[in-house]
Specification:
This protein has 112 residues and is mainly beta. It contains no helices and 11 strands.
Length: 112
């Protein structure tokens, strides 16, 4: 069964940047859309971005548009979410998803 593993989370100051990675265990990675989500404590999971299989097209939630960038390297089975101009309200657990498979999540905390 395909597995997705996120990494790259951590503590960052407001205005800072982080890059999250999502590594897939199967080469089917390159044939599927990749979506990113986040969930803050007490809140519903929020969709953030989707990138098509070739990376030619991306779509973003208004809350992150212009600050977050999704990309992917199909040769390495890795997707990335570059996050910049981070705000305290970006604090959440971040997830990647392909079809019905979710990663385990990685914590991002934005705080001074």
């Amino acid at each position: 069964q395909v597995q997705l593993v996120e990494s790259g989370g951590g503590l960052v100051q407001p205005g800072g940047s982080l890059r999250l990675s999502c590594t897939a265990s199967d080469s089917s990675f390159g044939t599927l859309n990749m979506a990113w989500y986040r969930q803050a404590p007490g809140q519903q999971r929020e969709w953030l971005a989707t990138i098509t299989p070739t990376g030619a097209y991306t779509n973003y939630a208004d809350s992150v548009k212009g600050r977050f960038t999704a990309s992917r390297d199909n040769a390495k089975n890795i997707a990335y979410l570059q996050m910049s101009s981070l705000k305290s309200e970006d604090t959440a657990v971040y997830y990647c998803r392909q079809r019905t498979i979710w990663g385990q999540g990685t914590q991002v905390t934005v705080s001074s």
